[in-house]
Amino acid sequence: MGRLVALSLLGIALALLGERLLALRNRLKASREVESVDLPNCHLIKGIEAGADDIDILPNGLAFFSVGLKCPGLHSFSPDKPGGILMMDLKEENPRALELRISRGFNLASFNPHGISTFIDHDDTVYLFVVNHPEFKNTVEIFKFEEEENSLLHLKTIKHELLPSVNDIIAVGPAHFYATNDHYFSDPFLKYLETYFNLHWANVVYYSPNEVKVVAEGFDAANGINISPDKKYIYVADILAHEIHVLEKHPNMNLTQLKVLKLDTLVDNLSIDPSSGDILVGCHPNGQKLFIYDPNNPPSSEVLRIQNILSEKPTVTTVYANNGSVLQGSSVASVYDRKLLIGTLYHRALYCEL
């Protein structure tokens, strides 16, 4: 009898594990392929060889790139080189990506930048917020951008128990931001279990010097985050649920969910087109190819444009798609004055004139 019970329990456990594995494959879109959607005037950006996970562009056309991200278990084309912040002036006729110097005292050797966001204060001071994973830990770094010297002055490192697995950030003040946690846990093995069993424990946190609080939760894997042009709404990408959440922002900085837009791809970082308010989304058509890297079958890239997301039927169009022959693992797309930048998790970056 005891053996029969043990065998039954083993069978139930194996069935559960098999069901979870199948569900994970579906969440990763493991069988999806893309048809190419090409843009005519594009070239790869020189100097970006190992990823530009996030891009943020100032109103004056200065674009910041977060480059060289490394994560446990994720492929890297430059595993021994620290990450950095690059800048490109999109008002130049032939813009080039230049690495910004960072002030003395900041640990450059362990710099591992992820999501980024800029904030312009009332006195025109530009702050750059950077999600950083030094030695695979989680911090938020705040820099002051010094344009005349093409440098970043490090001002502050933020650590907090409510920021255990930070992915992306949107600055809403000189020391204030919303951030996504793509997992509840910080330990890599516990993160894996959290993802495998689809626990939906990821969240969004609001941080200020006086208050830190969870303002939205229940996400499969909260990823990219941004804010509407009128500052009334926060947009959050849930990468493994293939969703973009629209949340209303309240005076006390709390958020309430307004709607969810379901898509057929893994949604990563979100950018806002300043001329229209449209959302540009860097996407991964097939997450399994992204996480299990095969140079003979590389991850593909996809960029979507979402118009009128607050309407009953938003318009979703594919701006760019590639099977990995040009660009692998697109994570972000940002536009300025008909110039499109597409970054990737660990590959190259693309510059296009629309």
TrEMBL record:
Extract the InterPro entries matched here. 6-blade_b-propeller_TolB-like, Arylesterase, Paraoxonase2, Serum_paraoxonase/arylesterase
Active site residues according to the UniProt entry? H114
One GO term of the biological process aspect: response to toxic substance
UniProt keyword terms in alphabetical order? Calcium, Disulfide bond, Glycoprotein, Hydrolase, Membrane, Metal-binding, Signal
Molecular function per GO? acyl-L-homoserine-lactone lactonohydrolase activity; arylesterase activity; metal ion binding
Catalysed reaction per UniProt?
an N-acyl-L-homoserine lactone + H2O = an N-acyl-L-homoserine + H(+); a phenyl acetate + H2O = a phenol + acetate + H(+)
As cofactor, the record names:
Ca(2+)
* Leading EC class: hydrolase
Subcellular location, record wording: Membrane
Would you name any one GO CC term?
extracellular region
The entry annotates sugar attachment on N269, N323
Give the quaternary structure.
Homotrimer.
Q: What is this protein called?
A: Paraoxonase
Source organism: Suricata suricatta
